[in-house]
Write a structure and sequence with these properties.
Two copies of one chain form a homodimer. By secondary structure, the first copy, chain A, is of the alpha/beta class. Chain A is about 40% helix and about 20% strand. Chain A is built from eight helices and nine strands. Chain A has an eight-stranded mixed β-sheet with strand order 3-2-1-4-5-6-7-8, with helices on both faces. In chain A, helix 5 links the parallel strand 5 (about 95-100) and strand 6 (about 135-140). Chain A starts with a strand and ends in a 5-residue tail after the last strand. The interface of A and B includes residues 214, 217, 219 and 223 of A.
């Protein structure tokens, strides 16, 4: 049976965008939302948008999490902990969680160009604390513009993948490389997610100052593949 | 009289590299060091390296600071506060300080891929607190590889300039643009220096993991100049 990828909080712009790109790459997607009908409606719209053989379902977050092999967290930071507590007994052993969360100050009514301090160091490390044994985590996809993810054109951006688990890092790296134009880079340990998350706040600031919508980042001086 | 640029702590790799590039661009450089003879020796070596009409002097840090119009701070973070306290009564009014400091954990015996927490938010904001009225500050140059700064080839890296002072931001932006290949970007307020500083720790990690020496960063999706 082909693997399923749940996109939790997947009705938002970043989640819908990732669902779009991964479904186009042939992955079987389950969009998760607080309410199943909203997720099903988002899945229907995305199927119509992509056309062809796109495999996209919708379900409430817990139902999506229970059946997936890989779960991508695309909720606002303010909703992350509550959801992960709810899902603690739900995950299948071996599930890989990919956290895309950026703890922007906007999540507590502040500016989207500022971060809030997370005691654990990063949203990813906060998430890691709330996963049961046997469920591993990588952090990735933070710096991809939601607007660019909506389409199908190549995206001029690197994805830094941070994880303490080799398998999780490998899976997230392979998924990132399925998005045209994207280069997946080894971002090192999960603790480095704090830097990668904060780059998103910097990109939002560049978007504002330069009046664009989809600033991204490339790293130079690295070996060609 | 042409302006003078002091490079304080300028005998280290980052400082020497910036002195090299700015002298090549025709700027009058005063390398500052704790001991004047070391600075003078570094200035002599750099003059010989560049040749031609390079204008480079050496002096102790206070003497360099007292005569400059622009001062570039290239000390390790552990030496920054002590020097700025010493210089508080030394600066000419109107001096522009450009801080390049990255508070790497290496400065307290930790890893160069980790940062230490700075109460003010960034090394640049810590520096700002120690400047007298009339001396303004911008943060820039953090992400340029010292190795690449040593030569004269174009550098494939953007420089984010962060400042709350328009004049300081403009001066730092113009200096960055004098380095071949470099694009200077408006990094917003000085508080954003915390993100730009941390990108250096990420680049050092990329250097280690990819076995290179001069990873850099470019931002995509911005308007062409």
């Amino acid at each position: 049976m082909a693997r399923k990828i749940a996109i939790l909080g997947g009705t938002g712009p970043e989640g819908s965008g990732l669902a779009n790109r991964l479904a186009r790459a042939g992955e079987h997607i389950v969009i998760g939302s607080r309410e199943a009908p909203r997720a099903q409606e988002a899945a229907r719209r995305l199927c119509a948008h992509i056309g062809g053989a796109a495999k996209i379902e919708g379900a409430d977050n817990a139902t999506a999490a229970a059946q997936c092999d890989i779960a991508v967290l695309t909720l606002p930071f303010s909703g992350q902990a509550a959801l992960l507590k709810q899902l603690k007994g739900v995950w299948k052993p071996g599930t890989i969680v990919i956290d895309t969360t950026v703890p922007l100050a906007a999540t507590v009514g502040g500016s989207p160009t500022r971060m809030i301090g997370v005691w654990q160091g990063s949203a990813a490390e906060a998430a890691a604390e709330l996963l049961p044994a046997g469920v591993s985590i990588a952090a990735a996809f933070h710096n991809l513009s939601a607007e660019l993810l909506t389409g199908d054109a190549p995206i001029d951006c690197d994805v830094l993948v941070c994880s303490d688990d080799e398998k999780a890092k490998q899976v997230a790296t392979e998924l990132a490389a399925k998005i045209p134009g994207v280069r997946a880079l080894n971002g090192g340990k999960l603790e480095n997610a704090r830097i990668v998350e904060s780059i998103t706040a910097l990109l939002i600031g560049l978007n504002i100052r330069y009046k664009v919508h989809s600033a991204g980042v490339r790293f130079t001086g690295l070996p060609a593949k």
